[in-house]
Design a protein that fits this description.
Helices cover 40% and strands 25% of the residues. It has 344 residues and is of the alpha+beta class. It has two domains: 179 residues, Ribosomal Protein S5, domain 2 (2-Layer Sandwich), CATH 3.30.230.10; 139 residues, GHMP kinase, C-terminal domain (Alpha-Beta Plaits, 2-Layer Sandwich), CATH 3.30.70.890. Helix 2 packs across helix 4 and helix 8 packs antiparallel against helix 9. The mean pLDDT is 93.
């Protein structure tokens, strides 16, 4: 028997950064986001020889150890090792894990957190654990951010777990996920007019989150203004979506980007600024980086008759425009027969 999982990646429209500690603990954060038709995929196949094997298609890497071994966090498959350790995977006869994501690491689409959520889902199904969605998301956050020390906010784990369009509130002792009832017409129009574009650069080594936190701790005025305005824009953009004011929503993407850049000078760079300006000249109403910044994917809202012009302008600069759709589901797991014919 095989257990499979798919956990969606997400777009963050506004509020990103306010879900990062200590700002979230002291002042509360809120984020508007939605999951898309890009996924972190996983397969678990049980074994009977006490061995655990983890293979990653993204990193073209394989690690193996026995169930009695303590986890060695050495930068190779640490997310999977930590999920196995926390969810009782070593209390088994062994298994194979195969992992793959639809976006490169450091893309700004929350791919590592979606992978973590997918791993929690696989282990939850494998061990038949009675975790609620809130518990599973919180565990994924705890493993990734606190145990492994991977910097970032809290929205990604909750987006991948719950799925759909959500307005999320973050406080020191609780998270509230408010699902938004967005009409099908509105979703179709968003898919019609939004353009996702990979800049060609990931942002692993830029230390953006650390810089933002340091500036907040020092109470730098620009950072504070950026964070406070992000919260306000998350509410305003939520209202624009619900009221079907999509041109306003698109323009506010640009406002969210301008205030996001105030949070840290590392969030943007000359390449990103130039891409943004060229997209605006070609007809984009607004746009922003989809994650912490420094690279990854950019999202633009365009009137559809200009969308192809925006895509071509970005393509000329070496970027990679792409279409996408929205996904209304959170993480899913399912079981299928193992028809490989291999004995495990």
């Amino acid at each position: 028997m095989l257990i499979r999982s798919k956990a969606p990646l997400r777009l963050s429209f506004a509020g990103g950064g306010t879900d990062v500690r200590p700002f979230m603990d002291r002042e509360g954060g809120c984020v508007l986001n939605a999951t898309i038709t890009r996924y972190a995929w996983g397969t678990l196949a049980s074994r009977d020889d006490g061995q655990i094997r983890i293979e990653s298609a993204d990193f073209e890497s394989l690690v193996a150890f026995d169930t009695k071994s303590q986890p060695n966090y050495d930068g190779r498959m640490d997310l999977a090792k930590a999920a196995i350790h926390n969810l009782g995977g070593r209390d088994s006869t062994g298994f194979d894990l195969f992992l793959q994501t639809d976006a490169p690491p450091g893309s700004g689409l929350g791919s590592s957190s979606s992978l973590m959520v997918g791993l929690v889902g696989l282990m939850k199904d494998f061990k038949r654990l009675p975790l609620t969605d809130y518990e599973a998301a919180h565990l994924a956050y705890t493993i990734e951010r606190e145990q492994l020390g991977i910097k970032g906010g809290m929205q990604d784990q909750y987006a991948a777990t719950f799925g759909g369009f959500n307005f999320m509130e973050f406080y020191k002792d609780r998270v509230i996920v408010n699902p938004l009832r967005i009409s099908r017409d509105t979703i179709n129009e968003l898919e019609h007019n939004l353009l996702l574009c990979y800049t060609g650069k990931s942002r692993f080594s830029d230390h953006i989150i650390e810089d933002q936190v340091d500036r907040y701790e020092k109470q730098e005025q620009a950072t504070l203004e950026g964070l406070y305005r992000q919260k306000e824009l998350a509410v305003e953009m939520k209202n624009a979506l619900l009221q079907r004011r999509l041109n306003d929503f698109g323009a506010m993407l640009g406002s969210a980007w301008e205030y996001k850049k105030k949070m840290s000078p590392k969030i943007s760079n000359a390449m990103i600024d130039e891409m943004y300006e060229e997209a605006r000249k070609a007809g984009a109403l607004g746009g922003k980086i989809t994650g912490a910044g420094g690279g990854g994917y950019m999202l633009f809202y365009c009137r559809f008759e200009c969308k192809h012009k925006v895509a071509e302008a970005l393509r000329r600069m070496g970027a990679q425009p792409t279409e996408f759709g929205f996904d209304s589901h959170g993480v899913q797991t399912w079981r299928v027969p193992d028809e490989s014919g291999h004995r495990r």
